[in-house]
Design a protein that fits this description.
Largest sheet: 4 strands, antiparallel
Bound molecules: zinc ion
Structural class: alpha+beta
Strand content: 15-25%
Shape: elongated
Order of helices and strands: EEEEH
């Protein structure tokens, strides 16, 4: 089974064999693999936005 990172609790989630679903046994998160990828993409985007915002705030 494939391992993935849970976007909810950041523990280890599992991708099913057909690569259609992601499930986390830690917090009960489940999503289709497609929407999981979208979620992770959005999180990466948010993180880099925050990073940029912090840079801007620091005044350099
Ligand atoms: Zn979880």
């Amino acid at each position: 089974m494939l391992k993935a990172k849970c976007p909810e609790c950041r523990n280890e989630a599992v991708v099913d064999e057909e690569m259609t679903k992601v499930g986390c046994s830690h917090c009960g998160f489940t999503a289709s693999y497609e929407s999981y990828l979208e979620t992770m993409k959005g999180m990466a985007q948010n993180m880099s936005d925050d990073y940029q915002a912090n840079l801007d705030k620091s005044g350099f």
